[in-house]
Amino acid sequence: MPFNHNDHYHRLLLRQLPRSCSTALDVGCGTGRFARRLARLGVEVRAVDPSEEAIAAACTLSEGMPSGMVPRFEHGDVTELELPYGHYDFISCLASIHHMPFDTVTSLRDALAPGGVLVILGCYPEKTWVDWAWSLAAVPANAVARVTIAVMDRTRPASAGSGRDLAKAPVRPPTVPLLQIRQQADLLLPGFTLRRLLFWRYLLVFRNTAVGSTDY
Ligand SMILES: C[S@@+](CC[C@H](N)C(=O)[O-])C[C@H]1O[C@@H](n2cnc3c(N)ncnc32)[C@H](O)[C@@H]1O
């Protein structure tokens, strides 16, 4: 399985889970790799994606998981769904928010239960010299990671795989610069944190600190 920048950050994302987490929503789940990881922790996961092929692959790849630990995969566009208010303990968007208008985060924010956490593993275009400097630093690290994973794959017995051979989740180049993402988040996600990650990604975390009700 080749080195994948989104999968690489799964553990970092899982570290953002609130202490008590029973329900989660994965937005743009693709073939469901992250949703399955979440579900294996005992979290009830709803995973949504508008790609029928990706959802079909996600279901196939989840066969054989212990019953009660299978994410609920749903074919759908999150911008058109009416999400339950104040419901989810954890909402994740891995490399998917740039497929939709950024203000979709408003409905995700409102769907968070008190104490709930929204995590966005985002992509951004290189627009400034700082962006380019980060990319330059990422290139050798990326090469080393690719080679390491390739060598490990050769020495490991064959596994069920990632599902990328079953179907590829749709991809799209990001267009909104990081500065603009920060500015929009400032308006919509008070108290958020955002940091750059090495492999052409950023991590945005928003915690719903409201007790009982959400009033923005
Ligand atoms: C680059 S893929 C990432 C897939 C997966 N999260 C991962 O980490 O491998 C982006 C995904 O976002 C999904 N997507 C695009 N528009 C969406 C929307 N409006 N609602 C939910 N998901 C969407 C795409 O179908 C695609 O599967």
TrEMBL record:
Protein name per Swiss-Prot or TrEMBL: 2-polyprenyl-3-methyl-5-hydroxy-6-metoxy-1, 4-benzoquinol methylase
Keyword Methyltransferase attached: yes
Keyword annotations from UniProtKB, A to Z: Methyltransferase, S-adenosyl-L-methionine, Transferase
UniProt cross-references to Gene3D superfamilies, sorted A to Z: Vaccinia Virus protein VP39
Positions of the Methyltransferase domain: 25-116
Gene Ontology MF term list: methyltransferase activity
Biological-process GO terms, alphabetical: methylation
Highest taxon listed in the record's lineage: Bacteria
